[in-house]
Amino acid sequence: MKRWFTLLALLTVLVTTAAAQQRYIEETFSDVSVTKDITYGVNATVLALPQVGEAIPVPLLLDFYEPVGDTETERPLVIYFHTGNFLPHPDNGGIGGKRDDSTCVAIATRLAKMGYTVAVATYRKGWNPVASAQEERVFTLINAAYRGVQDCRTAVKFFKKDVAENGNQYGVDTSKIVIWGQGTGGYISLNAASLDQYVEIPLTPGGKFIAQVGGQPVPMVIEGINGDINCDSVGIVPPNFPGFPAGDTLNYPNHVGYSGDFALAVNMGGACGDTSWIDPGQVPIISYQVPTDPFAPYKAGLVIVPGFNLPVVEVFGAYVVQEFQNRYNNNAAFAGKTYSGDFSAVANSRNDGYDGLFPLIGTGGPDDSAPWEWWDPATNPNHTSGIQNNPDMSKTKALSYIDTIISYYAPRACEVLGLDCGLVDVEELDPAAMLTVAPNPASESIYVTAREDKLIRSIYLYDLAGRLVKAHVNVDDNYFRVQRHNLAAGQYVMQVHFDEGITSQSVLFH
Questions:
Q1: What separation in angstroms does the CA of 212 have from each of 113, 139, 235, 350?
Q2: Is residue 457 located within the same domain as residue 443?
Q3: Which residues lie below 8 Å from residue 435, measured CB to CB, with a gap of 6+?
Q4: Which of 371, 403, 423 represents a domain boundary (last residue)?
Q5: 53 and 136 share a domain?
């Protein structure tokens, strides 16, 4: 029988005000310290190529968040990569693309208050989305993604080297590292989790990452030129290589001898280059995506350059990634477990059984692809494209989605990272054997009636965006009336809690 897991501390806070807070599940610290502009590596960027004629080395920077007053000396670490279309802001045409984007700061601060350390990191940019030839668009994009994977592994290695050689000045546990990507950063987190061998790129089925040079097939990424995937080797351009002068350095080794491996990946709106890169035994992945996302396919589809309608290459979104993760049992640490109070019922009602996938529904129409983002139009008056992608954007809306994202992430990370989060196993009960819910659909009220020998302890109602919209605690009766009040017409997920376990079912107000 499937089991539910209740977040004991979280539910206690909902029911009473006197309970202690649980680290890694809730915010247990009130203040966060941020150390900005830490150099975690140096590597070659192609952004200056048109001006100087070669790739040049640039520092790779991160901002480090940690809770104030923490006495723990080895804490889990989240390395967070922002969005940005692999182009620098504001040239990327979007509202985001920096370490201090609103969403980056909000999520990093929230995680730090929960007891995590967080490194919000930049990465190398540069590709040609408006090249006249599709092959050139594919070539420059796969190289940008490959550099992103190298930078991701460089950041991991930076902290492992610090522990080994500098006395762990950041106070992290390098066995508990999470890679988290938002938008374009989601491409980095997914590809870093799946692409663990360079050879998988030239061997990708269909030859989609093979170029024709002088009538001969040539891999678009070559280890001797681009450097190895762990960023341990020098990448040198040979004579007659297109686009770069002979002898140019495209990769500088960083923190050689340290592993770039990590324990968990989180993806918000990214995609994976190819499913052939996903293998059994790879790290667990948690994914969030709007199924109608026009910029990253939810299943399989072409990357399209916004504003130009130019096709690039087929990639695979969160739905397909999580399908393969579950097929290979890579999410076994949390698969088959559902956590009360973290919106699992909402995710499971629409993810087709793929554990770790949370399809989010934007409230601003089908193009609302990033409902976790917000910005101040007064300071960004020219970015109308961002408003089109999130037409009803507001800080309140974005934070409500971030609440859902964090809540869904927290218990799963506890399982994967082996954190002591106070999870208690509770049985899933058959709703037909426990209660009746009527009328359903309803116009104003729904009456929940349990068996005479069972007491309803609490009732939670979630909308399809995954947000908690009603919480009735301390019910302690076998009958309760759930009133609609100001709820909009639509479908909701109702969780009813008993001493013996919980039930979950859909209800509809019309």
A1: 51, 11, 21, 42
A2: yes
A3: 448, 449, 450, 451, 454, 456, 496, 503
A4: 423
A5: yes
pLDDT tens-place string over residues 32-86 = 999 999 999 999 999 999 999 999 999 999 999 999 999 999 999 999 999 999 9
Query: pLDDT 10s per residue in the chain (510 long)?
Result: 344 444 433 333 333 333 357 999 999 999 999 999 999 999 999 999 999 999 999 999 999 999 999 999 999 999 999 999 999 988 887 778 999 999 999 999 999 999 999 999 999 999 999 999 999 999 999 999 999 999 999 999 999 999 999 999 999 999 999 999 999 999 999 999 999 999 999 999 999 999 988 889 999 999 999 999 999 999 999 998 888 999 999 999 999 999 999 999 999 999 999 999 999 999 999 999 999 998 899 999 999 887 788 999 999 999 999 999 999 999 999 998 877 667 888 898 899 999 999 999 988 777 788 999 987 665 555 555 455 555 667 888 899 999 999 999 999 999 999 998 877 656 778 888 899 999 999 999 999 999 988 999 999 898 876 678 898 989 999 999 999 999 999 989 898 989 888 888 889 999
58-to-61, 92, 240, 249, 252 alpha-carbon distances in Å: 9, 19, 25, 12, 10
261 and 374 co-located in one domain: yes
Whether residues 311 and 253 fall in one domain: yes
- Looking at the fold, whether 208 and 297 belong to one and the same domain comes out as yes
Examine residue 13 and state whether it is found in any structural domain, yes or no. Answer: no
Is residue 27 in some structural domain? Answer: no
What CA–CA distance (Å, rounded) separates 466 from 41? 38
Give the residue carrying structure tokens 């009746």. 436
Enclosing domain of residue 286: 32-423
Q: Are residues 88 and 42 in the same domain?
A: yes
Q: How far is CA 59 from CA 180, 216, 254, 436, in A?
A: 21, 36, 11, 62
Domain boundary among 386, 408, 423: 423
pTM of the predicted model, to two decimals? Answer: 0.86
Would residue 18 count as lying in a domain? no
Neighbour count for residue 377 (Cβ, 10 Å): 14
In angstroms, rounded to a whole number, what is the distance separating the alpha carbons of residues 47 and 359?
35
Number of H helices, E strands in the chain: 11, 24
124 and 79 in a single domain? The answer is yes
- Does 357 share its domain with 448? no
- Number of independent structural domains in the chain: 2
Tokens at residue 119, please? 């490194």
Strands 264-268, 172-182: parallel, antiparallel or unpaired by DSSP? parallel
**Rounded Cα gap, residues 341 and 350, in angstroms:** 17
Q: Closest by alpha carbon to 184, among 129, 250, 134?
A: 129
- What CATH number is given to the structural domain containing 433? 2.60.40.1930
